[in-house]
Amino acid sequence: MSVLLLLMAAATAPGSTPRAPPVRASMETRCEACHSVGSWTKVTFDHSKTGFPLEGRHVSTSCRACHGSSQDFTEPVATSCAACHRDVHLGEFGNRCSSCHDPSSWASRFGPDAHRLTNFPLTGRHAAIPCEECHLNQRDRRFTRSTVDCYTCHQADYARTVRTAIDHLRAGFGTDCKSCHFPTRFKGATFPAHNACFQITAGPHAGISCLDCHSSLASFTPTGTCTTNTADCMRCHACSRETTSHANVGGFQCKNRKCYECHTFTPRAGFAPSPAGVRR
Amino acid sequence: MTARGRIAGALLAASLGARASQSDPAPRRTGSVLYATSSRLYLDAGSREGLAPGRIVQLQKGTCRVEQVSATRATCLGSGRAGDTFGLPPPPQPRAAARLAPLPAPAVVEQRRSILVSAPHPKVDFHEGSSGLEARRGSADVGIGHTTWWTARVGASSQERVDALIRDFPLGAGFTLDVDLSARRWSRQTGPISFRPDAVTQLYVWEASISRRTAGGPAFSVGRVRPYRVPGQVILDGAQAGWRSEGGTEAGIFGGVVPDAVTLAPSIDHGTFGAYWIGQRSYPGDSSLRFLRHEARIAFVDTADLGKRVQGEALLEARITRQVDFAFDVRGGGNLTGGSMNGMGLEALRIDVSARPLDSVNLLGSFRYDGLSIPELDGPGRVLNSGAVHHVDFSAAWEPMDTLRFSVLSGLSSDLLSHTSRRWIGPEIALPRLLGDSAGLSAGYFREDGWAPGSSAWLQLLARSPGIFQLLARFSWFRTTGIAPVDLDELGASAAVQAQLGRYLALRLSVFGRTTLNGQTTPFGRATGQVAFADLELAGTF
């Protein structure tokens, strides 16, 4: 009878012998510390007690994604980011992932403000352009080595001035864009050298545009002698009115060149007509 | 009742009385801290001693708030040291003994016992899952997003994108799939676009490989491969093959052609092959060395820009006790001409050190040098520079209590080709738990020096409901000198919101705006301007 029972048991047994539970003698045997009666597979464990609290996406990550196939979860596991995450930046930023990334999302938190802690603070329009405009390398996802030299990025803008403004190349303007331009937009530049010939940053002519005075900018060439032959005073200062108001000025002629002989408007001479030219 | 019954009853009463007197010792008046981290204390008392979540415990120095409680143990949020003692609340008043219902008749008890004994209760056998299956379950992150960049008096440019990141997706027989790609399309372009201006639609594939990587066997990847932990190795269209030990140490070879740096299109202008070594090990908690990772690469590189070269890179990362983390990465190489190497030089060096000499003090320092013997694209002009940069930063943080942190941050970044550099240093004060786990506040100031000196200040708020919602709002002020004809004052505001829409979906919104404050009128117009940026993404994690 016993033999028969043994044979029946063998015939109805599963195909493989059930393996022993993966619990080592030294392991925790208080099942209720992690498991519940609701489900054996729904394990809850207060990971913060291990010195590595699970935050963000780590909460929903499977235990073995970090602990591997080992059954002993008490074996030490590296806590550095690089131990689990692949570094797509090729080590450029070391293992301090948290400077830009957050456990709740791998999307970068690095923004224009943080860029100030580099060799190139993002000012003006630079703060709202795609990163790729300067950091061209898409392959290595590296961010160092973008130039701080304006011209390297703005060569095309410099060349474009031949048809949009003063031909910078012909005028002999330098490539240090920031000495005249603001980072907010190219239009709206200053021209500090202009004041030496004719003050336009203060006084009655402050705020006027190039073409308010100059008949043409395409042929503009700074000579250092304050003569461009393109300044057109008469455009605003009508001859009929100026002839009347200068009736007592000896040698007055309603010509652009003549205006400048008396009215230099330089910081040194001030805004008033130069004394030598006034014969009221 | 018989005499035997009376004797038995007397013995039972005596034993119960003795047990009751043993289990009712004098109540404890003090508890102590068993273990302390920087923000959490582990107490030797629990609910039996009257502790409950939220209760404030008065320590010898400071207080802490009880977080979780078991019958005999509790954790509390605060600062302190192991061994600190604290007063326990008075024990709860014993409840009046409830009168128990009379015992059922012996016949009823016997009937119930027989029912329980005869009830079927099949045992459950333990069936272990396939070994390591869970670890190879893989993950997928998919996101669709929209970004708009806007500049006053210029207009807006907008781009839509789809991102996909698949990690270790099981294909069967131990093979896994890894994909990392982004597809982008400009829906509106206003103003000049320098980066690929003619490519309205762009596709970037960083990884599309099939791998098999098991402990104690061969490990390989083929396709567009991001070589697994080969330090400094860029992605390649080729293969990586090696052997992996049970402990995770791996050695092997790799080779292929390297995609174009801008478009990621396949290219034969750049090829490489070489060998690698990977090692990583954790040590028991009582050893001084807790973790060690070491990786190395030696490679032959042939590029259209720099010719034939030999490169080597080594990385070492270690955790020493609980206090110090150290990482060191060095890359060097030289040109191969006429069968000999020359022009050997240091191409990159990185050192990162973090130390926590006290639980409340954290120090971080790093140095990195990039010598650029590798091709680099420098601005839209695609100027290839052979200069070098270095970057140094150091920060120190002190957390006298769980709710307060003082920091000093400093750094130096230099371009050794253009001889331009910037330095910065400034304090930051943070109240990370201003409203408990719900909100924190921080403020800081930087003084900056160098080719574009200036200063900046900010105020930042972080509000969150873990797993549901997070808001990061920031207000900033900047003054920059030397980057415009006059000093430039700017005011900025930004906010990043993340809302979890369920188990798998999340919505992320980032907005940013900045305006120039000193609206100086220049000869040719106003130099003021406003810029803004907005990014909206719906992301799924599966």
How many β strands of chain A by DSSP? 0
Total helix count of chain B?
2
Describe the largest sheet of chain B: 22 strands, antiparallel, barrel
Which secondary-structure class do the elements of chain B indicate? Answer: mainly beta
The residue-averaged pLDDT of chain A reads 73
Oligomer: heterodimer
User: What percent of residues of chain B adopt helix (DSSP H or I)?
Assistant: under 10%
Name of the level-1 CATH class of the domain at 419-542 in chain B? Mainly Beta
CATH architecture of the domain at 419-542 in chain B: Beta Barrel
Low-confidence stretches of chain B: 7-23, 128-136, 378-384
Major β-sheet annotation of chain A: none
Mean pLDDT of chain B: 83
Attribute tags:
A: 280 residues; mainly alpha; 3 domains; 7 helices; disordered N terminus; disordered C terminus; B: Porin; 22-stranded antiparallel β-barrel; six-stranded antiparallel β-sheet; 2 helices; globular
What does this structure look like?
The complex is a heterodimer of chains A (280) and B (542). Chain A is mainly alpha-helical and 280 residues long. Chain A has 3 domains: 74-148, no CATH class; 149-188, no CATH class; 191-280, no CATH class. Chain A has 7 helices and no strands. Chain A has helices at 2-12, 63-67, 150-164, 168-171, 210-213, 239-245, 256-262. The longest helix of chain A has 15 residues, at 150-164. Chain A starts with a helix and ends in an 18-residue tail after the last helix. With 542 residues, chain B is mostly beta strands. Among the domains of chain B are: 27-89, Rod shape-determining protein MreC, domain 1 (Thrombin, subunit H); 419-542, Beta Barrel (Porin), CATH 2.40.160.10. Helix content of chain B is 6%, strand content 58%. Chain B has helices at 3-22, 106-118, and strands at 30-36, 40-43, 56-58, 63-69, 74-78, 85-87, 139-151, 155-172, 175-188, 201-213, 217-225, 236-244, 250-257, 270-282, 289-303, 307-320, 324-337, 340-358, 361-370, 389-401, 404-415, 420-431, 439-450, 454-465, 469-480, 488-500, 505-516, 521-522, 525-526, 530-541. In chain B, the strands form 3 sheets. Chain B has a 22-stranded antiparallel beta barrel. In chain B, a hairpin with a 5-residue loop joins strand 12 (236-244) and strand 13 (250-257). Chain B is globular and about 100 Å long. The N and C termini of chain B lie far apart (71 Å). Classes of the chains: A mainly alpha (280), B mainly beta (542).
